[in-house]
Structure to design on (330 residues):
């Protein structure tokens, strides 16, 4: 198998990079393909007996983009672009992507804030990815907290790995908890304490492994009668990239995702047998949904519903914590 890097020209958005990745991944002989929009590049591993560089470049050109082997002076299928121009394009694209991310998160936050004007809830709990803490070098989370405090809330920010709460998954998440001070009607909300740890030290339980969560399910390739026990046909090709790494059966599962796979579906985590991806049912089990909870919609929709959820086990812990708050004034 040969590994090679290509420079790609003409890509302007995530849809472009997804199209290039899909076109090349579908070629006979390609073992893996990863397109990076920020650097306008593509890393590919392929069988030299079945493919050659000219065919790969021709396929990219057919899709409407230019390509050349990284390091070649000539760019086939597109006008030559000087390195300074390419660097400028990369910087501009990076800015657009970061700006879009910031805008999306703040739009969700502002929309949520508008809900608090009337009526104002006594408590709210918001969940987001860990990256929100470093967004804009930490300034974004500071503004969010400050604005909620200005709206009459005391605010706490908790960064946790849900594997430490018995969820069979390494899932780093941030929870923003706000309590109304106008007036304060309930006692202080106490965020749940961890119950599990990697080494089971301090009297805690050991992490729940992905094998613990999934070994009771039957083979999805034979008739079994289990609801939602179907899996994505998206090829398993291991590389050092999210949702493409090997799943260790003796550890919690990697984070269940809701993002796309570049081919119109969701990037499901590989099963620890290394031969297929997790079924919808197995993904739900990792997110601690009950085995008899049935999802409705297309397979992609079901994967996405699961990936966007807060694990049920931890949701219960949060609800229990809210239920323990005492009324301190009418």
């Amino acid at each position: 198998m040969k590994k090679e890097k290509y420079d790609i020209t003409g890509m302007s958005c995530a849809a472009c990079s997804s199209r290039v990745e899909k076109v090349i991944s579908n070629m006979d002989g390609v073992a893996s393909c990863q397109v990076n929009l920020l650097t306008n590049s593509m890393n590919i591993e392929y069988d030299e007996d079945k493919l050659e560089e000219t065919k790969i470049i021709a396929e990219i050109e057919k899709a409407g983009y230019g390509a050349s082997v990284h390091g070649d002076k000539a760019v086939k299928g597109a006008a030559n672009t000087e390195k300074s121009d390419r660097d400028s394009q990369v910087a501009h694209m990076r800015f657009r992507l970061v700006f879009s991310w910031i805008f999306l998160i703040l739009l969700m936050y502002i929309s949520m804030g508008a809900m608090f004007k009337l009526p104002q809830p006594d408590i709210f709990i918001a969940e987001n990815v860990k990256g929100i803490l470093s967004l804009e070098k930490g300034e974004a989370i500071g503004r969010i907290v400050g604005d909620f405090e200005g709206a009459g809330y005391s605010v706490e920010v908790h960064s946790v790995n849900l594997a430490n709460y018995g969820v069979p998954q390494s899932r780093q998440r941030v929870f923003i908890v706000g309590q109304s001070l106008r007036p304060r009607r309930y006692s202080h909300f106490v965020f749940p304490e961890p119950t599990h740890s990697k080494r089971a030290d301090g009297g805690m339980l050991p992490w729940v492994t992905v094998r613990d969560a999934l070994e009771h399910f039957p083979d999805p390739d034979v008739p079994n009668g289990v609801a939602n026990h179907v899996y994505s046909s998206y090829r398993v090709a291991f590389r050092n990239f999210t949702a493409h790494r090997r799943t260790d059966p003796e550890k919690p599962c990697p984070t269940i995702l809701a993002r796309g796979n570049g081919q119109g579906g969701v990037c499901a985590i590989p099963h620890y047998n290394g031969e297929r991806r997790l079924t919808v049912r197995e993904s739900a089990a990792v997110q601690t949904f009950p085995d008899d909870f049935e999802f409705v919609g297309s397979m992609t929709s079901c994967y996405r519903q699961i990936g966007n959820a807060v694990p049920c086990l931890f949701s219960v812990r949060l609800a229990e914590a809210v239920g323990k708050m005492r009324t301190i004034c009418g």
In short: The domain at 106-203 is CATH 3.40.50.150 (Rossmann fold).
